[in-house]
Amino acid sequence: MTEENDPVIFTGRDGKEYCDEERAVAEMLVDGALFIGGDSGPFLESDTPDKRPAGLYVNCNDFFFYSAADALILPRDQIHPFYKLWKQGHANVWRCLKEKRRPLPQIEARMKAQGIWTDELDALPAHDSPLEAKTPDTPA
Questions:
Q1: Which strands form 34-37's sheet, in the order they lie side by side?
Q2: Residue 97: is its pLDDT beyond 70?
Q3: Which residues pair with 55 in a beta bridge?
Q4: End-to-end alpha carbon distance in the chain
Q5: At what angle do helices 21-31 and 79-87 cross, to 10 degrees?
Q6: Could you count the other beta carbons within 10 Å of the beta carbon of residue 95?
Q7: What b/e sequence results for 116-133 when a residue is b if at least 16 CB atoms lie within 10 Å of its CB, and e otherwise?
Q8: How confident is the model at residue 129 (pLDDT cuts 50, 70, 90)?
Q9: Within 10 A of 53 (CB to CB), how many other CB atoms are there?
């Protein structure tokens, strides 16, 4: 579905672009782009169940580090920009900009090959840790 006929993104009478956030979140939850977690992180682990507000998380497993269960909280003011990038197949751009870091080298190469790598992403710090650049097949 293109942005022109996407019922989630629309232009208001004032000419501004708006996002039906509830529909956007529902669509991304169904697709698996988002998941729900609690105040102690994305896995709803807390010793005080009454203090577990749920939040929306974007999966970042094996995106910045190998063998890492990682996620980024999706703040409400980022639902619209994330949805637009996700709908275009560019959710990885949001992940990098939100975390202010480059992904693993092979993901960066794939993003460049797809033509979604930008100057803004190029300005992010490069991987400099041997653990970040190490592949699963590299001996310790």
A1: 34-37, 55-59, 71-73
A2: yes
A3: 37
A4: 45
A5: 50
A6: 21
A7: ebeeebeeeeebeeeebe
A8: low
A9: 9
What pTM, to 2 d.p., does this model score? 0.75
Give the residue numbers spanning the domain of 33.
3-133
* Residue 138 domain-assigned (yes or no): no
Q: Which position has the token pair 């033509």?
A: 115
Is 139 inside a domain boundary?
no
pLDDT digits (tens, 9 = 90+) for 66-89: 887 788 889 999 999 999 999 999
For residue 140, tell me if it sits in a domain: no
Helix (H) or strand (E) segment spanning residue 34 = strand 34-37
Report how many domains make up the chain: 1
**DSSP structure string for 31-86:** HTSEEEEBTTBTT---S-GGG---EEEEE-TTTSSTT---EEE--GGGHHHHHHHH
Domain annotation covers residue 54: yes
How far is residue 52's CA from residue 46's CA, in Å, rounded to a whole number? 7
What 3 state SS string does 91-102 have? Answer: HHHHHHHHHCCC
**Axis-axis angle for helices 91-99, 79-87 (nearest 10):** 140
Which residues, 6 or more positions from 47, have their beta carbon under 8 angstroms from its beta carbon? none
Q: Distance between CA atoms of 105 and 126, rounded to whole angstroms?
A: 9
